[in-house]
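Input record (one chain):
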Amino acid sequence: MTTPAPIRVIIVDDQAMVRAGFAALLSAQADIDVVGEAPDGRQGVAVARSTHPDVVLMDVRMPEMDGLAAAREILDPPIGVVHRPKVLMLTTFDVDDYVYEALRAGASGFLLKDAPPADLIAAVRVVAAGDALLAPSVTRRLIADFAAQRPAVRSAPALRLNGLTPRETEVLELIAKGLSNQEIAGRLVLAEQTVKTHIGRVLAKLGLRDRAQAVIFAYESGLVAPGS
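The corresponding structure, as predicted from the sequence alone:
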């Protein structure tokens, strides 16, 4: 049985002490390799393009190019660039407009910088595995807050809902309410693998990258109302 390749990570943060601390913590894990770091978003994009990481830890507020702009460049690369890593935003604020916009741009989630070390390690593993929505209750609250503050024009997203089956719509609604695959399976009396299949179809039909974007879409389309 072959051993899975280590998760390749780069750290983009303007504070050298933060980069060093995160690098030491992550490098101590047998399944994680820190393959690069950068002090600002512009250099972060360059390092991501040259090292092909699986996960980018991206600070929100940085000089030269902030984390939001850098995340957009990494997640929506120019023609010819095929590698698109997962991006995990790092922030000192649990409610931050930049984080919301980063999730809309395709970031896989966010983590508070003062989170316990075990949470950072777990977050890297979760994002690398493709389970995008970190800290579902916090992420859901963040998205709901901004959806309430800035109501979207709902006609276009709402029309896209018409392409989903009733079961797929139900699954999307439960994702937006913060339920895990296991919880959705229990609620709908389905096998967990069946839930994963439904989620894959929802993402494909709506042209979404991951669960984080699915939550945002559910709010912006009006399928789920803030505070529901």
